[in-house]
Specification:
The protein has about 260 residues and is an alpha/beta fold. The chain folds into two domains: about 190 residues, 2-enoyl-CoA Hydratase, Chain A, domain 1 (Alpha-Beta Complex); about 45 residues, Lyase 2-enoyl-coa Hydratase, Chain  A, domain 2 (Orthogonal Bundle), CATH 1.10.12. Helices cover about 45% and strands about 15% of the residues. The chain has eleven helices and ten strands. The strands form two sheets. A six-stranded mixed beta sheet has the order 1-2-3-5-7-10, sandwiched between helices. Strand 2, helix 1 and strand 3 form a beta-alpha-beta unit. The longest helix has 16 residues. The protein is globular. About 40% of the residues are buried.
Length: about 260
Amino acid sequence: MSNYETILVEKRESVAILTINRPDKLNALSSKVHVEGVDALDELRKDTEIRVLVITGAGEKSFIAGADIGEFAEQTPVTQRNLFYEKTFFNSIDTFPKPVIAMINGFCLGGGCELALACDIRLASEKARFGQPEINLGIIPGGGGTQRLTRLVGEGKSMEIILTGDMIDAPTALQLGLVNHVFSAEELEAKTMEMANKIAEKSPIALQMAKEAVKLASRSNLDEGLRREVDLFAICFSTADKQEGVAAFLEKRKPVFKGK
């Protein structure tokens, strides 16, 4: 992996951990983080040894506390559009072919919440706090917050969170479906790695096909989604992993998937 200034990438066998490493700034998303995040994801996308990605923030206080507001004064509509248009850090996570788990260890606000929303699964510490406070700056979410949050929790709750700019705690986020599970701060990493390793044991091809199919469910009509599901299902039958999975089941043993 390349050396980065604002992020760290660690590999633990088939699981990669990408850490936003600006704890003195509560891991705020600077333009540098966006650029390095996209570059790191491009590298991890090509790494066949990596089957699952975990994203988190450095330190105990914050996952990502939002954008780096200090940069806003010098930004123009054009620079902001260029930063948030097409190949953004958020969209690179959303379209990443391997499962992505957000390990949310503290403040998850603004762009941080949007980044978590772009992940496939969200696991939170009981100390985590969530929100889209952009309205307090006279702006609105620009990294997918109005779209992904609404699809996840519904229009009414999304409106409340975005229009008030208020924070919600981890139990409330769990109740709304914003996060999948809440753990104690001490358990969060172990529980996250437990899930990541469990997923990493599955067929990489099947994981990619399943992720694509599930994401399509909220982005297409039912008929289109069902047709695509059948296509992806059929593709799985062309793989050596399917042969291995069926053989292992019949032989009453654990399958060893190779992503072929």
